Amino acid sequence: MAGSDLYTGSLDLLILKATSWGPAHGYAIGRWIRTSTREVLTVQEGALYPALHRLERKGFLEEEWGLTETNREAKFYKLTRAGRRHLQDELVRWRRYARMMTSALTAARP
Amino acid sequence: MKKTFHLSPGDEGASEDVRREIELHLELRAREFEAQGMSPEAARKAAADAFGDRGAIEAEVRHLRDDTVRTRGRREWVQELIQDARVALRGLRRTPGFTAVALLTLALGIGANSALFSVLRSVLLRPLPYPGSEELVQVWSDHRARGREQPEWLTPPDFVDWRDGNRTFAAMAAYQGWGPDFTGAGEPEALGGVAVSGNYFLVLGVGPALGRLLTMADDDAGSEPVVVLSDAVWRRRFGADPNILGKQLNLNGEPWTVVGVLPSGFQPPLQVAPELYRALRRPATSGCQRGCYVLRVIGRMRPGVTLEQAHADLSGVAARLAREYPATNARTGVWLVPLHEQITGPTREPLLALGAAVGFVLLIACVNLANLLLVRGAGRARELGVRAALGAGRGRLIRQLLTESTLLALVGGGLGLGLGIVGSSVLSSLVPVGVRRIQGIQVDGAVVGFTALLTVLSGALFGLLPALQTARSDLMSALKSGGRGAGNAGGRLRSGLVVVELAFAVVLLVGAGLLLRSFLLMQQVNLGYRSSGVAFVGIGLPRVRYPDGDRTLQAVDAVLTRLKGNPAIRSVEITDLPPLSQGDQDISAIPVGEPRRSDRPEGIWYRSVTPGYLSQMQMRLVAGRQFTPEDRRGSVEVGIINEEAARRFWPGKDPLGRVLAQGEDSGATRITIVGVVASARHDGPRQPYKVELFVPFAQAPSRGPNFVLEPARDLESAVSALRQALAEVDPLVPIASTDRIDDQVGTALALPRLYALLIGIFATAALLLAVLGVYGVMAYAVAQRQREIGVRLALGAAPSGIRRLVLSQAGKLALLGTGIGLLSALGVGKLIGSLLFGVSPVDTVTFIAVPLLLGGMAILASWLPARRAMRVDPLVAIREE
C-alpha cells in the first residue's frame, strides 16, 4: 500500500477490529485507527477505502446504509460472521507473531 | 439507527455511492481540523492532503465495487438456486407417490430413447468404417425387366466390361465366396474364405497389419497361389504366429503361401466375416461366361460423382453390351445401391419405426407429467399465493416451479441413461449380426449428449407449461378462495393435454396391433415343410479330389450306406440347399412346346435331393411320383416341380410327363416332370411362393451336400455317427455346418417377434399413461367441482345424472383423442408397411379394436371419479367453502 509503513495485512486487521463493536462508516473507522495507534502510523487516509471494499468483496464486511450521529446518510460497514471468524484467527496469529518477534528482538546476546 | 434498503445498485448508483462516501469522509475530517483551530479553507486542504490522490482512490474503489456487485449477484443467484432446489426437494419428498411415478416414467421414457438412439446412431447415422465410404456402392445387374425382383450378381465378362467401360468409377472390385478345407495341421477344418480381385483392399482403403495384402499382380492366372489371413483366424488357428509370413497352408489339397495378415479392426462389408482371402485369378475368358452370374461387385465412385451420374454412365455400357450380346445381355440393366444402404437397409425401417414409437412414449410421458404438475400446481395455488404476497416475484415463482421440474428431469434422465446403457445391448439384437459387427454398437459421448438433450427438453416440455399456467393464474384470488384452483383455463389446458395423450396412444396402439397381427399371421403360415426334428449337416468336398460328379456321388453314397441301419439315426437324406439358408440357385427353364408368353418365368429355382427327402421333410406330393433309386445318372433326367411352377409354366394343364429345357438349343438338358409337390416357403414365412424344381441328387450331385438327419434319440449322437462315417470315407473332409431346422425357423421369426414385442411394450406403456392421464383429469375435475355438484344434488339432481355428467365429459375427451389418433394412425401403416405381413395398413380389426380398447379404458378410468361425484354430500360440500 502506497505511503504506508504498516506491516502487511495489519490495516485489514485494524479495520476488522474497528468494526467488531458494531457497524461503522469509513470516516469513523479511519479516526479510530488514527487515535488507537496514537497517530504513529502515517497512513494515507484514502488508502482505507480500497481496503474496505476489498474486505467487503471477500465477504468479511457487508454494507448497510444508515444515518450518522449528525443525521447524514452514510455507508456503514458491518462485520459479517465470516469476518468475525477471520478476525479471531488473525488475532491469534498476530499475537503469536508479535510474541515471537519481541522475544527474538529483545534477546540477550547468546 | 435507521436503515434504508439499497437493492442492487446499478453502475450509476455505484459510482455515486463511492463519491458520496469519500465526500463525507473529507467533510468530517475537515471539521476535525477546524476543531483544532484551522480556518475552514485550510482545514479542507489539510483533509484533502491527508486523504491522498482522490481520483486514483475513487477509481480503484469503483472498480472493486463493480466486482463485488457482480460476484454478489452470482452468489445470490446460486444461493437462490440452492434454496429453490431445497424447497423443490422438500416438496418432492412430501409427495413420494408423485415423485416415484414421475421419476419412473421419465427414466423409462428417456432410457428407452437413449437405448434406441445408441443403436440408430451406430447403424444408420454413422458412416461405414472405410475411408471415403460415401463413394462406395454395391454394383448389381438389374433383371427387373426380366421379371426378377431381386438384384442379380455380375458375370465375369460383364464385370470386366463395366469396369473398363465406365468413366465415373475410380475403381471396381469383384469377389465371390470361397470355402477351402484346411488340412495337414490337426483336425481338418472348413474355413470361410472369399476370393477377391486384386484391388479389393485398395477399394476399401485398408492396409496390412503384417506383410502385404493382395495386389493386381496376384490376379493373373499364372501367379503364385497366395492368401491373406484375417486377424481372427491368425490368432485362433495360428496362435498369432509373428513368423506366419511365407508359411504354406494346405487348402483343398493345394499349398497356398501366406503373404499378409489384416488389421484386427478391419471388418469387410459382408454378412459373414471371412477368415482368409485369395485373389480371384480368373482370366476373363475361362469357364464362366456371359449368363453366368457369380461375381459380387463393389465400386468406388470418383469424388463428386453422384449415384445418378454413375448409374447413367454404367447403363450406357450395359446398353452397348445388350446390343452386342443380345442372347445373354438383353434386358440386363444396372442396379447401384450405396454400400451403407446395402448393409444397413433392412434394419432401417424397423429401427425408425421403433424410434418413432419410443419418441411417442416419451412425449406421452411428458404430457402426463405436465398434467400431473398442473394438478399439483393448482393444488398449491394457495401456497404460491402466500409466497407471492410475501414479495416473491412472478419470475421467481416460475423459477421455483421450473427448478422442481428440472430436478425431476435431471434425476429421471440420470436413471434413464443407466437404463439406456443396459437397454442398448438388449436392443442390439434387433440388428443382424453382420451389420452389428461392421458398425459396432456402443454407448458413446453422442449417446450421452443425446440423453442430456432429451432430459433438458423433457424437463422444459413438461415443466414450462404448468409453471407458466400456475404462475399466471390469479394468485391473490386463489388465496382468497382458499386454493380452489387455477380456474377454467387450467382445466381446458389439462383436457387438451389428455386429448393429445390419447391421440398418441392410439397411434402407438394401432402400430402395435398391426405388427402383432402380422406376427401372429406369420406364425400361422404353413411353411410347407416340417419345422422341427431334423438337422442339416453340411460338408464341402474339395474340387481337387472330387473333380467330377461320379466321384462326388460315390463318396456321398458311401457315407449314406454306412449310416443305413445306424441306431442313432431314424432317417438320413441329402439336399444341396436346406430351406431358410439364405442361398438360392436357379437355372433357365423353358417348357418345351409351349407358346411364348410374357408372364412366364425365365428360370426356376432348384434343389437336388435324394429320393426320400420330400417325405422326410413332410412335403406333400399332390401328383405323380417321388424319386426312386432308379432315377440315376444315365437314366432319363426327371424333376418334381411345385404347384406354383405348374401353374406358371403350364397354366390349366397337367404338367406330368411334360419337359422343361434348360436352353433354346437342342443340346440343352431336358427334364421330364414326374411329380408335383405342394408349394413351400423355402426363404421364410414372409416370402411369396417361388417356382421351384427338385431334381434327383444322383443326377445332379453337388460337392456341397447337406446330410438331412432325423435323429433316433438326440442330435449329438446322430452327428457323431455321421462324423465317424465321413472319417471312414474321407478323413480330410470336415463338417462345415450343423443347423437344426427348429433354430432356423425360430430365427426367421425372431425379428418379427421382437418387433411386435417391443412395440407391444411401448404401446402398453402409452395406454397406461394415457389412461392414467384421463383418471387424473377427471379426478381433479370432480374435486374442483365438488361445490357445484353439491349444489346440484341439493337442488334435487339425481346422483346417476351426476355420474352421467362426469362420464360424458370423459367420453368427450376419449372420443376426440381417439378420433385424432385414428386419423394420424392412417399414416402409421405407411411408415411400417414393409414390416407388415398379411394385414393391410388400414386393417379393420385393428382400427376397430384399438378405439374400443382405449375408449373402454378411458371410461373405466373415469368411473372412480364419477362414483365419487355421485357420493358427494351436498351439506359437506357447500359448508366446506
What does this protein look like?
- The complex is a heterodimer of chains A (110) and B (881).
- Chain A has 110 residues and is α+β, with helices and mostly antiparallel strands.
- Chain A contains 4 helices and 3 strands.
- Chain A has helices at 10-19, 26-36, 48-57, 81-105; strands spanning 24-25, 61-67, 73-79.
- A 3-stranded antiparallel beta sheet of chain A has the order 1-3-2.
- In chain B, strands 1, 2, 3, 4, 5, 6, 7, 8, 9, 10, 11 and 12 form a 12-stranded mixed beta sheet that branches.
- The longest helix of chain B has 44 residues, at 741-784.
- Chain B has 881 residues and is α+β, with helices and mostly antiparallel strands.
- Chain B is extended and about 140 Å long.
- The A-B interface holds A 2-3, 23, 25-27, 30-31, 44-47, 49-50, 53-54, 56-57, 63-68, 72-76 and B 1-6, 17-18, 20-22, 24-25, 28-29, 32, 50-54, 57, 60-61, 64-65, 67-68, 71.
Brief sketch in words of this structure:
The complex is a heterodimer of chains A (110) and B (881). Chain A is an alpha+beta fold and 110 residues long.
